[in-house]
Amino acid sequence: MIAYDLQCGNGHHFEGWFEDSQSFERQKKQGMIACPVCDDTGVLKLPSMFAIKGSSGTLSLNSGETEDIAAMGKKIVDYVQKNFDNVGADFAEEALKMHYGVTEPRSIRGVSTPKEEETLKSEGIRFFKLPVPPEPSDPAGS
Fold it and tell me: Distance of CA 90 to CAs 25, 71, 83, 84, Å?
């Protein structure tokens, strides 16, 4: 079992337990994970306390360090939002155009469907997904 710290689009924090990471992703995609306070299904995983067991001992993070990780995550999201072109729902199309030399390479951000993500992977296009909180002007995350 895996316990995740979660946050809804309205900023409520709660915990969820899942058999594995695929179970979380499947349930999230199906809208099965809802905030116990407001019933919002726009849920994000948050960095949580953890420990790593290695040959030189154990590295553990306390709550203060977890806050530092959350602040670092916010800096990354802010950087991406300020420095990457937002192509919205055209993410996969734009990534394919750059991959095949139709357009000049540039840093882009946007959204894609699971089917589009599979296409990008099959074409050898590397990308990564960041959980992005809703804009302050859009507290509902819609």
Answer: 22, 29, 17, 14
Whole-number Å distance between alpha carbons of 27 and 46: 16
H, E, C per residue of 59-101:
EECCHHHHHHHHHHHHHHHHHHHHHCEEEECCHHHHHHHHHCC
CA 10 distance to own-chain centroid: 16
pTM check: above 0.85 = no
- The answer to whether 69 and 52 have CB atoms below 8 angstroms apart is no
Mean pLDDT of 78-104: 92
What tokens does 141 get? 């995350």
Residue the block writes with tokens 């695929």: 22
- If you compute the radius of gyration of the chain from its CA atoms, what whole number of angstroms results? 17
Question: Is residue 95 a contact partner of residue 108, using CB atoms and an 8 Å limit?
Answer: yes
pLDDT, tens digit (0-9, with 9 covering 90-100), for 104-127 = 999 999 999 989 999 999 999 988
Closest CA to 43 of 54, 52, 30: 30
